[in-house]
Design brief:
By secondary structure, the protein is of the alpha/beta class. It has 10 helices and 7 strands.
């Protein structure tokens, strides 16, 4: 699949997921979005950009941080995601449909850029990192979050899908750097793109689904939807029944607990460093 076709494909998937995104089940992206903005260390009056903003999990916290004299912008390839965002109180973030690999901003337009759980999906993550560096002021910060897919719920979800699905499709969200984990791989990529003072932290949280039905609905609300859409109706029906049976085994008095862990990677735009 060509890069352009992949981008159109992803935009269509998230257009369909937009009505449910972070609305079905626990507010996972809202929780980790606030943490990522904290890592970006925004100050009053600064300018912030959120790449692949979705329904805006990072935008509200970013606007709180920069205050009325600051400016926050969110971009996404999915028009439906942008349209699904709640207006909020002024000053409202600016929204635009834009490709992260081809940012339409002047150099040094932002003091900080955030990108939550999206960089591995891009056809060319390296190009996106270089574009982000150019859009940052010297010394500006790029803050990324990545799922640790070998931990907790995501490891279980991947194992369940591969063992239960007639056609176990590989997730598109894979590290572009062979041999390395996603965290190590993208940490290296930031260095190659010209970022320095790179630091990595790990954030873990436990959430709860209220019922197996809510859990199943949530699978259609994010990128996992891509796997499900590849299945023919009969196999999807079988998978749903197996999934509901499996998730019931995890249900307790307070619902269905899931544990997630995310890597937060923050790098500074090195003034004298150029991409290699």
């Amino acid at each position: 699949m060509t890069a352009g076709r992949r981008k159109r494909h992803l935009a269509a998937i998230y257009d369909r997921a937009a009505p449910l995104y972070d609305q079905t089940g626990p507010a996972i992206y809202t929780h980790f979005g606030r943490l990522l903005v904290e890592k970006a260390d925004l100050a009053a009056g600064q300018r912030a950009l959120d790449i692949a903003t979705g329904r805006g999990a990072c935008l509200g916290p970013a606007q709180e941080s920069v205050g009325p004299k600051g400016k926050v912008t969110g971009i996404d390839l999915s028009t439906a995601m942008l349209l699904a965002q709640e207006p909020g109180a002024p000053p409202r973030p600016a929204l635009a449909r834009m490709d992260a690999e081809n940012l339409a901003f002047a150099d040094a337009s932002f003091d900080a850029i955030t990108c939550a759980f999206s960089l591995p999906l891009f056809p060319d993550p390296r190009r996106a990192l270089i574009a982000a560096k150019q859009a940052l002021v010297p010394g500006g910060r790029l803050a990324l979050s990545l799922w640790q897919e070998d931990f907790g719920y995501f490891a279980w979800l991947d194992s369940w899908f591969r063992s239960s699905s007639k056609f176990p499709a590989a997730s598109p969200a894979r590290d572009p750097i062979a041999q390395d984990s996603a965290t190590v791989g993208f940490q290296k990529e930031l260095g190659r793109a010209g970022f320095d003072e790179i630091r990595v932290t790990s954030e873990e949280a436990t959430f709860s689904y209220s019922s197996p039905a809510q859990w199943w609905a949530s699978l259609w609300s994010h990128g996992f939807r891509e796997r499900l859409e590849k299945l023919k109706p009969f196999f999807l029906y079988q998978l749903k029944n197996k999934g509901l049976e499996a998730i019931r085994q995890l249900q307790g008095p307070s619902g269905i607990p899931i544990s997630l862990r995310a890597s937060m990677i923050v790098g500074r735009n090195g003034e004298a460093t150029r991409p290699r």
